[in-house]
Specification:
The protein is α/β, with parallel strands linked by helices. 43% of the residues lie in helices and 16% in strands. The protein has 16 helices and 16 strands. The termini are far apart.
Length: 427
């Protein structure tokens, strides 16, 4: 039987950035009784398979009400479909209602999860060997992993306690150009970032858009957590503030609806001009990439999400009030549990962030929070967490991420107690 050298395969097969999530899943699978403060997925109690046929029916009625014949409705659901999807109009209404983002439906491409949207945007923007993407660090591994898969360099822009500094973005872009490379875009999660939990002040958002204009950058705005603040304080998206078409908005229905549908989207309303002067939308141009990846996003999955959007009046902010309340309470419970477990001056030197929303809290700890310690934590202490080193090019050694989204509310305190025992024994 043929044997292949692992090193002869593409770097994405064996690179630690790309395999970190597999490692977490493998550890969780080996220790199913451990309390998981690692998973950033939504809470399963909000999902009921019995809702699926209702969403399908609602969407079919919506199509019929729009004048489609039964034959056309059947074809739309059961056949290959339009590359950029059939939910553009509903998503445009959603963005207007919830985010005050005004874009035409034809500027929206429905993707197979937000992960595909990232791959499409990166591949479309980075055309030459010297093209790079700037990314606020610590950075979501889905973005860095996608870039590695495509052979695109990611240049980190360090994040401070208050988020990324627009002046540092500008300086990084200029340094990249001085090396003979071309910065094409900046990836940022402005609301309750994964993994840091940081949310950018409004003033910083305006400054980032100014820097994008001055440095000729596009901004890849990823906003999966924006609904889940601790308060109802408005947090305008970069796309809503964008007046110069600098922002490509990456959207997901994983947290606001449910991840099993694997439906995301991108908004790319930038104008593209060819050598003859013909103008198109960037979303149309990027559809050529999607057609070679997944042909089109599952029409059945789109129909399920479409039915949910129709049923909610195209306002997931209104439809998600129960989830918003749940995640708020879980985050408050996690922060209280940390304060109880690590009172000031009582034991190992542990500090943590206090985010204003989202799913994640980062702990600085007096020990290397690496894969070895995580396995020990799972096996002997029964608690899972995520090493922050997964989110850095080089760093995050003495830090870990806790997530409060997927765990039963009553188990959060016990999970933190187990973590405190681990750090007391090994800190």
């Amino acid at each position: 039987m043929i044997e292949l050298a692992r090193e002869s395969l593409h770097v994405s097969v064996w690179d630690p950035v790309a395999t970190s999530m597999n490692f977490l899943n493998e550890v969780a699978g080996r220790f199913p009784d451990a309390i998981s403060l690692a998973a950033g997925r939504p809470y399963n109690g909000f999902h009921d398979p019995a809702d699926l046929p209702r969403y399908l029916s609602v969407f079919q009625d919506h199509l019929a009400g729009a004048g489609l014949s039964p034959q056309r409705v059947s074809s739309l659901l059961m056949q290959y479909g339009r590359t950029n999807g059939v939910l553009g109009e509903l998503i445009a209404r959603l963005l207007d209602n919830d985010e005050h983002i005004l874009v035409p439906p034809e500027a929206i491409a429905v993707t197979s999860g937000c992960q595909e949207a990232m791959v499409i945007a990166l591949r479309g923007l980075c055309a030459r060997p010297g093209d790079v993407v700037l990314a606020v660090e610590p950075c979501y591994v889905g973005l860095t992993g996608a870039a590695r898969l495509l052979g695109i360099d990611v240049v980190p822009v360090p994040e401070g306690a208050g988020g990324v500094d627009a002046a540092v973005v500008a300086a990084t872009a200029r340094a990249v150009r001085a090396e003979g490379r071309q910065p094409k875009a900046l990836y940022v999660v402005p609301n309750f970032s994964n993994p840091s939990g940081v949310s950018l002040p409004v003033a910083t958002r305006h400054l980032l858009l100014d820097v994008a204009e001055a440095e000729d950058l596009l901004v890849l705005e990823d906003d999966p957590y924006g609904l889940f603040g601790l308060t109802d304080e408005p947090r305008p998206s970069l796309k809503a503030l964008d007046r110069r078409s600098r922002v490509i908005y990456l959207g997901s229905f994983a947290k606001s609806c449910f991840p099993g549908a694997r439906v995301g989207f991108l908004v790319a309303d930038q104008r593209v001009v060819d050598h003859s002067g013909r103008q198109t939308l960037l979303a149309d141009e990027l559809s050529a990439i999607k057609s070679m990846l997944t042909v089109n996003t599952s029409p059945v999955a789109q129909a399920v999400i479409g039915g949910l959007l129709v049923e909610s009046g195209c306002s997931l902010r209104a439809a998600n009030q129960a989830k918003i309340g749940f995640y708020r309470q879980n985050l408050r419970t996690l922060l209280t549990a940390l304060a109880d477990a690590f009172p000031e001056g009582s034991g190992p030197d542990v500090r943590w962030t206090v985010p204003s929303g989202g799913f994640f809290v980062v702990l600085e700890v007096p020990v290397a929070a690496d894969e070895k310690l995580l396995e020990l934590s799972a096996e002997r202490y029964g608690v899972l967490w995520t090493p922050m080193s997964f989110f850095y090019t080089d760093g995050g050694t003495n830090a870990l991420r806790l997530s409060c989204s997927a765990v039963e509310p009553g188990r959060i305190g016990e999970g933190v107690t187990r973590l405190a025992r681990l750090l007391a024994d090994h800190g």
